[in-house]
Design a protein that fits this description.
Blueprint (H helix, E strand, L loop, with lengths): L7 E8 L5 E8 L2 H10 L3 E7 L14 H16 L4 H11 L3 H15 L4 H5 L8 H13 L2 H55 L8 H37 L1 H13 L3 H22 L4 H10 L4 H15 L4 H8 L4 H13 L2 H56 L1
Antiparallel strand pairs: 1-2, 1-3
Helix pairs in contact: 2-3, 2-7, 3-4, 6-7, 7-8, 7-10, 7-15, 8-9, 8-15, 9-10, 10-11, 10-15, 11-12, 12-13, 13-14, 14-15
Length: about 400
């Protein structure tokens, strides 16, 4: 399977079947394969060469998951309007403001034009289109309902990215509080407290214990601020690297994240929403339940629930009902289990799971809004305590002198 990194853009000039001069770009792994692709399109290439790269970087914005969601929605809209697939690629690519997403769409268009299937073309770009996305597109191609499937995928991607944005918002706010508190405290200790220390050096009386503690902390911060700052940055980077490389460490972090106050319930609700949304989408697309559960496990986003869903899949494969298997894990709430049971009995599992997904997505939205409202006064309180505490420590000796006088 080729990846996006192995393909390059080639610029060609040649003539078409009618003898007209043509020129353009084609995505391929080599110039020879590029020429073969052009022959299939009825173009006799006179020159094929690699497109030169820009001198200063690649230009354009990075392709984000939401860009893929927008691309999918646009393709679904075009096809529902009766626009042919290849022409839809051209319209969407030309309308994109991001050169990188436009280049990606054109590469897919070239593959489809040369005879590849839509899903097969997407699989060449696994960085942007995962197995779930490609499998659903392939299912749509085989059933002859590609425009309907693209519409479902677009809805799924939009809901998923909106949920991720809410979680990111919930995680960013507490992090912002900590960062602001550290920066403000650091500035006070390094720049402000030393000014008071010079004044206190002329005092004959002993300084209060709290003041001495802050002065010692200030001296430590002045002497080792670069080590403290570098250590914090290094610790953050090492944490991310360890989570990426060590499965055991990542699993431990996932477990802890579910138990954190305030943030934990948001993570839990988001996992439930993702589980219901992914299973609803895949099942509605006609994907067999066993295969659908495999996709759901991969999209869980948490190792604890990934293992639980894998266990569900194993039990379902042996003939156990889905709601019974979910209940056996002891990881899912009664509401989800009951709705799944109703869906199985009524033959409308995808509809029931869609309602469950909407419920938990709304719950996450409300919890994030509540967290935002709660943290706004908390930021002021934390900064007030830090700044006020340092100022009190600096003014205590002055107050004591005033009392003696």
């Amino acid at each position: 399977m080729a990846s996006v990194s192995t393909n390059e853009i080639f610029v060609y000039k040649g003539v078409d079947r009618k003898g007209n001069k043509v020129e353009g770009e084609v995505s391929s792994s080599s110039s020879a394969i590029a020429k073969a692709q052009l022959v299939k399109q009825g173009i006799r290439a006179q020159s094929v060469r690699k497109k030169p790269k820009p001198l200063f970087g690649g230009g354009g914005k990075k392709i984000k998951p939401m860009d893929i969601a927008v691309f999918t929605r646009q393709m679904a809209t075009m096809m529902k309007a009766g626009v042919p697939l290849v022409q839809s690629f051209d319209i969407v690519a030309d309308g994109s403001e991001n050169p990188n997403i436009s280049k990606l769409i054109k590469a897919i268009r070239e593959d489809v034009s040369s005879g590849s299937g839509f899903a097969a073309s997407l699989r060449k770009h696994p960085k942007y289109f995962d197995d779930l996305f490609c499998n659903l597109v392939e299912s749509g191609e085989q059933s002859g309902a590609l425009e309907t499937m693209l519409d479902r995928i677009a809805t799924y991607k939009e809901k998923t990215e909106q949920l991720k944005a809410k979680i990111k918002k919930a995680m960013t706010y507490p992090a912002a509080v900590v960062v602001v508190a550290i920066v403000v405290t650091g500035i006070l200790l390094v720049k402000v407290v030393p000014q008071f220390a010079e004044t206190f050096s002329s005092f004959g009386a002993d300084l209060p214990a709290f003041t001495l503690f802050v002065l010692n902390l200030s001296e430590l911060a002045q002497a080792y601020w670069y080590i403290i700052g570098g250590g914090m940055i290094a610790g953050f980077l090492l944490f991310g690297k360890a989570k990426e490389k060590s499965e055991a460490f990542a699993s431990m972090v996932d477990k802890v994240s579910l138990k954190l106050p305030i943030v934990g319930p948001i993570v839990y609700q988001s996992i439930l929403a993702r589980f219901a949304r992914t299973l609803s989408t895949t099942f509605a697309a006609g994907v067999p339940l066993i295969d659908a559960l495999q996709s759901v496990a991969g999209a869980a986003g948490n190792s604890v629930y990934q293992k639980a869903i894998t266990k569900i899949r194993e039990e379902v494969a042996t003939g156990t009902q889905l709601n019974v298997s979910i209940n056996n894990t002891k990881k899912f709430p009664p509401l989800l289990i009951q709705m799944t049971a109703i869906g199985e009995e009524s033959g409308a599992l995808d509809e029931m799971l869609d309602k469950v997904a909407n419920y938990y997505e709304e719950a996450v939205d409300n919890m994030v809004d509540s967290l935002t409202s709660l943290l706004e006064p908390m930021i002021m309180a934390v900064l007030g305590v830090l700044v006020g505490g340092l100022m009190v420590a600096m003014y205590l000796p002055i107050f004591n002198i005033g009392k003696v006088i």
